[in-house]
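Encode chain A's predicted structure.
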Amino acid sequence: MRPPLSIAIPTHQMENRDYFFKKCLDSLWVQTFQDFEIIVSDNSEDDTIENICKFYFIGIKYHRNPLKGMAPNTNVAIRLSSGELIKILYMDDHLAHNKVLEMMMKKFSGEWLIAGANNNHNPRWTDDIHTGNNKLGSPSALMVKNEEPLLFDESLTWLLDCDLYKRYYEKHGKPVIMRGEYIMIGEGLHQMTYQISEERKKAEHGYLTKKYG
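Encoded structure for chain A:
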């Protein structure tokens, strides 16, 4: 039987990933809404994440994925998701309290939903989001209907969320927005903000400029 919800978690080699990943799973374990599956797509170099999945949380669907990069790895997790809805959750992020999923499931309508986070309590749509002006937030704030869901552009790393949101808007209009604090973003030097070179950021801005005109 198809579950109402899939939690799609892409994982990768990252400093303190066992700490962050366990915190992420802890926040799922205590949710008042429990009718979901967990899909982990892992492109780590070792068995750390796999071992946590085996012994930490019953029923995790673990997939060892050789495809490197946030976009390809997240796309694998999305493709493996069988739930009616998909909630993306990065391994270094977690849910803010035990009723987050219950509230998101009740609020969801249309095709996509964005929830507020600790670093963005008031997400909002911006018409120039494809330029990098992202006021919606991280993909961890995203929930989508699992009926031919859009995938991340695998040419992108820095602006992959801006591009995805732009395409969701073009196809389905603005998202349902939940203002407040529902997602806790794991901030630190491990974040993509600090890992990507300025040259790469500039190249991705140029790529999206050509893509959208």
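The chain has seven helices and eight strands.
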